Amino acid sequence: MSTTAIVAGPDDDEIGAALEADGVDVTRVDGVITRPQLEEAGIVASDLYVLTDVDQATTIPIVCDLNDDLRTVVYARDTVPEFVKGQLDLAIDPQLMDASVVADELVD
Q1: Which of 32, 35, 70, 101 has its CA 20 to 30 A from that of 58?
Q2: Spatial separation of the C-alpha atoms in residues 11 and 8, rounded to whole Å
Q3: Cβ atoms within 10 Å, residue 81
Q4: Whether this model's pTM surpasses 0.90
Q5: Which of these, 46, 50, 57, 43, lies nearest to 4 by C-alpha position?
Q6: Residue 1 — pLDDT band, cuts 50, 70, 90?
Q7: Is residue 67 predicted with pLDDT exceeding 90?
Q8: For the segment 5-64, what is each residue's pLDDT rounded down to a tens digit?
Q9: Which residues contact 81 (CB under 8 A, 6 or more apart)?
């Protein structure tokens, strides 16, 4: 069974490509992200939610509500808002860790 992920936000640091290189089936969403958009992208059956834009941090509680088994990751240079920190599995600054290293850790 393959791992599925949703990468939300602009992917300037190429975490989506790194996940795909590790065999993950990646769906991308961008712009103002809504619950219906996440549902259409397959969040209910996804294994991983990677947010690259902390301005969209309100999506973290939404995805956690839709999928109890989902791992949530923020891969962004900006600080994560306090209200979502308790729902995150991992927050990493791309300047500190390359996307390929993060992807390897998420897939293992």
Answers
A1: 101
A2: 8
A3: 13
A4: yes
A5: 46
A6: low
A7: yes
A8: 999 999 999 999 999 999 999 999 999 999 999 999 999 999 999 999 999 999 999 999
A9: 54, 57
Q: Which residues, at least 6 apart from 70, have a Cβ–Cβ distance to it below 8 Å?
A: 43, 46, 47, 48, 49, 63, 64
Q: Classify 84 as helix, strand or coil.
A: helix
Closest CA to 39 of 8, 85, 75: 8
CB 52 within 8 A of CB 13: yes
**Separation of alpha carbons 62 and 34, rounded Å:** 9
Q: Which of 85, 88, 58, 22 is nearest to 5 (CA)?
A: 22
